[in-house]
């Protein structure tokens, strides 16, 4: 059956079967994919371990040891389970031999229909664009933190060290304009591997500094229930913070909006869903280990006063060179993560343009350029123009909205439940034709409802934080 399906796809693609057999092209007519378990895991780790890992100490401080650790473990398991469901949706109807779905929205359209396809597209691309803008802000904060660290080291911790983020956002935008010309996910492997190593680097530094503070006797008082209601915090503020912490932890495990696109880079020699499930396990095991250590060591070191970011929030001032190195790692990681999150947006717009203006040389023309004997790439005028405009717009919005991290938290809270839980669960139910009110159906819907309630609570917490940010809103005047 699998062999018959393979021959049918080769026939429909119009390819010479010998070229497919020789490995020049895959069964769908596209150049042979080269991804493997390691490159796929690197893409996932680059996407999932953002600089938000350094805020987990604050999250655990709001929730306490019991709820904080349990929340990290529960959302890790939920994400692994739903990601494996989604991996089976790459091919339809059979997850090993069916027709490929190249994007998340393609999988939703195939399994759930046109209305769900539109809804998924709106949520997914809003989320991806929000991440790109948020990463621009976060990277600039780390760049400013390097300058502030040196300022505090030279002038003392009480010095007034405040610098504008805008020049750093502009510099990052210029770098991303060049990197955005990487044509697609298939060419991002090396950048993702470098970014993944950078995430390990700054996570180890954050954990190491926190661990050193604890073992040296400088750790602060912690409790089983987290930040205590009293003079510094009201019961209402405690509740809002807990909601936000739930949302931050849930969102920290979210990468489903990229999963199908990442899976499409895998070689066809083995069923892609099996390799993807191994990559899910490897990446989430690695991620959860880092999250647990960063969150727990950070809380043990700072107690209720855990900063929102261990490295840019100046939980640590010395050794200043090590803090600077960690922030450099954050910047390099976010440069790569920017491209991982923007590639699906680039692909969607360019696929639409290719269908709309299929005879235009501006849109379709590829012009080979060689620099030396080794560095060769294809230039495309539409790709150059539109991606440059996208980066400029993202940079401008990041500069205009200094409170955009609060908006990003809102986008994350809204996007987590549908993209990580609802659509994978509903597609699995549709593919397997699971009947209503059976035990399996009830179990899946229980996950759906619980995650929806968490997302709703996180949304409320984000809106409350956003209302505070608006009170101090000064466009193009973000300072750290």
UniProtKB/TrEMBL annotation:
Transmembrane residues, as ranges? 37-56, 63-82, 122-146, 166-182, 188-212, 279-300, 320-341, 384-401, 407-429, 441-466
Q: Which domain of life is it from?
A: Eukaryota
Q: Where is the Amino acid transporter transmembrane domain?
A: 34-465
Q: Where in the cell is it found?
A: Cell membrane
Gene Ontology MF terms: symporter activity
Entry GO terms, CC:
plasma membrane
What are the boundaries of the signal sequence?
none
Asked if Cell wall biogenesis/degradation is a keyword of the record, the answer is no
The answer to whether keyword Cytoplasm applies is no
Gene Ontology biological process: amino acid transport
InterPro entries cross-referenced by the UniProt entry: AA_transpt_TM (IPR013057)
Which keywords belong to this entry?
A: Amino-acid transport, Cell membrane, Membrane, Symport, Transmembrane, Transmembrane helix, Transport
Checking PANTHER family in the record gives:
OS05G0424000 PROTEIN-RELATED
Q: Which family does it belong to?
A: Belongs to the amino acid/polyamine transporter 2 family. Amino acid/auxin permease (AAAP) (TC 2.A.18.2) subfamily.
The name of this protein is: Amino acid transporter transmembrane domain-containing protein
The record lists the organism as Camellia sinensis (Tea plant)
């Amino acid at each position: 059956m699998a062999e018959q399906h393979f021959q049918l796809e080769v026939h429909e693609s119009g390819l010479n079967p010998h070229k497919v057999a020789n490995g020049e092209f895959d069964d769908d007519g596209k150049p042979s994919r080269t991804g493997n378990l390691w490159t796929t895991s690197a893409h996932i780790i680059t996407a999932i371990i953002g600089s938000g890992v350094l805020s987990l100490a604050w999250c655990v401080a709001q929730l306490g040891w019991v709820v904080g650790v349990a929340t990290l473990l529960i959302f890790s398991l939920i994400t692994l389970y739903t990601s494996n469901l989604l991996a089976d949706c790459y091919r339809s109807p059979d997850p090993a031999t069916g027709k490929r779905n190249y994007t998340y929205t393609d999988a939703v359209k195939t399994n759930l229909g046109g209305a769900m396809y539109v809804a998924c597209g709106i949520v997914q691309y809003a989320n991806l664009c929000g991440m790109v803008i948020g990463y621009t802000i976060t990277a600039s904060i780390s760049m400013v933190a390097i300058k502030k660290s040196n300022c505090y080291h030279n002038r003392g911790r009480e010095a007034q060290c405040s610098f504008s983020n805008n020049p750093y956002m502009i510099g990052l935008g210029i770098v991303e304009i060049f990197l955005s010309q990487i044509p697609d996910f298939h060419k991002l492997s090396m950048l993702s591997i470098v970014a993944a190593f950078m995430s390990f680097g700054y996570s180890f530094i954050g954990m190491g500094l926190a661990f050193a503070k604890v073992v040296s006797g400088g750790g602060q008082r912690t409790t089983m229930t987290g930040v205590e209601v009293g003079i510094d915090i009201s019961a209402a503020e405690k509740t809002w913070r807990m909601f936000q912490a739930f949302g931050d932890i849930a969102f920290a495990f979210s990468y489903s909006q990229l999963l199908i696109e990442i899976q499409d880079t895998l070689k066809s020699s083995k069923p892609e869903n099996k390799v993807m499930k191994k990559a899910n396990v490897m990446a989430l095991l690695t991620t959860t280990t880092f999250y647990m250590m960063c969150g727990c060591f950070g809380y043990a070191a700072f107690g209720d006063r855990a900063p929102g970011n261990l490295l840019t929030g100046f939980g640590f001032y010395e050794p200043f060179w090590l803090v600077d190195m960690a922030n450099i790692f954050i910047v390099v990681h976010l440069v790569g993560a920017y491209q991982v999150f923007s590639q699906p947006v680039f692909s969607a717009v360019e696929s639409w343009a290719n269908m709309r203006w299929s005879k235009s040389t501006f849109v379709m023309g590829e012009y080979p350029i060689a620099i030396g004997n080794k560095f060769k790439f294809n230039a495309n005028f539409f790709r150059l123009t539109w991606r440059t405009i996208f980066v400029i717009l993202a940079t401008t919005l990041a500069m205009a909205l200094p409170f955009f991290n609060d908006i990003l938290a809102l986008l994350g809270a809204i996007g987590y439940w549908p993209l990580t839980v609802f659509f994978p669960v509903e597609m699995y139910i549709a593919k397997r034709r699971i009947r209503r009110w059976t035990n399996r159906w009830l179990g899946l819907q229980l996950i759906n409802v619980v995650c929806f309630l968490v997302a709703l609570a996180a949304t409320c917490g984000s809106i409350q934080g956003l209302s505070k940010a608006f009170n101090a809103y000064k466009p193009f005047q973000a300072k750290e």
